[in-house]
Amino acid sequence: MEERVLMAPSILSADFTELGKAVDLVQEGGADLIHVDVMDGHYVPNLTIGPPVIKALKRVATVPLDVHLMIENAEDSVDWYLDAGADWITVHAEACEHLHRVLQTIKTSGAKAGVSLNPATPVEVLGDIVSDVDLVLIMSVNPGFGGQSFIPRSTEKVLRLAALCAGEGASPLIQVDGGIDTRTAPKVVQAGARVLVAGSAVFCEDDPVAAMEAIREAGQSVL
User: Fold this and answer.
1) How far apart are CA 21 and CA 160, in angstroms?
2) pTM across the whole model
3) How far apart are CA 134 and CA 103, in angstroms?
4) Domain boundary assignment for the chain
5) What DSSP state is assigned to residue 18?
6) What is the 3-state secondary structure (H, E, C) of 41-81?
7) Using the 8-state DSSP alphabet, how is residue 158 labeled?
8) Domain 6-220 maps to which CATH number in 3.30.540.10, 3.40.50.920, 1.10.10.10, 3.20.20.70?
9) What is the pLDDT of residues 163-211, one digit of tens each?
10) What string of DSSP letters covers 105-150?
11) What single-letter DSSP state applies at residue 68?
């Protein structure tokens, strides 16, 4: 059976005055996850949303909420996001002093646990933890803002991550976020990614559902 590329449209690029409608639109159009970027203005140079908005989104979401915590104090605040209804939570390896502990907190709650790596962070830092996660998110831009250009070396990084996972006997989903569109999707999928996050390439188009499906089809074409 052929593997399926999963789409996780990022609401960071949606109209914040109509987030509920944006979520309805893409999930009815086939989105597998709703990607929610939480930024604290400290770990990354931008400030977005927090638990109250996630709780509100949970009331309209029919697919899992994929919450990406770009924050400094994930160990102290991850419970807020679990209580708000996050189904998947991804934390940054660079921002967590006790990474294993916070991942276990997420998994014990019944949510899926993910770990993210910034562009300058080598995949090898995950050697002792990759078997304990459900998802690894490779940032193919520097985190903090939507609409950035894909960093070409990210494709090689996905390849190295896939090799690391195979060597450790681990099988987390590999997700890529940043500059994902119909041109870059096939590259990262061929390298091993199976979950694509796309924000501006979906929500800044006239037909977000058609744009999302075009990206999925471009990725699917290399499997």
Assistant:
1) 38
2) 0.96
3) 10
4) 6-220
5) G
6) CCCCCCECCCHHHHHHHHCCCCCCEEEEEECCCHHHHHHHH
7) H
8) 3.20.20.70
9) 999 999 999 999 999 999 999 999 999 999 999 999 999 999 999 999 9
10) HHHHTTSEEEEEE-TTS-GGGGTTTGGG-SEEEEESS-TT-SSPPP
11) E
pLDDT one-digit tens code per residue, 11-48: 999 999 999 999 999 999 999 999 999 999 999 988 99
Q: How far is CA 92 from each of CA 51, 67, 125, 135, 210, rounded to the nearest angstrom?
A: 18, 12, 12, 12, 31
Share of the chain above pLDDT 90, in %: 94
How far is C-alpha 151 from the geometric centre of its chain's CA atoms? 16
- The answer to whether 37 is a known catalytic residue is yes
| Catalytic site residue from 37, 40, 66, 134 | 37
> Which amino acid, residue 21?
K
- CA–chain centroid gap for 71, Å, is 14
Active site (annotated) includes residue 207: no
How many Å separate Cα 27 from the centre of its chain?
A: 16
CA distance 105 to 113: 9
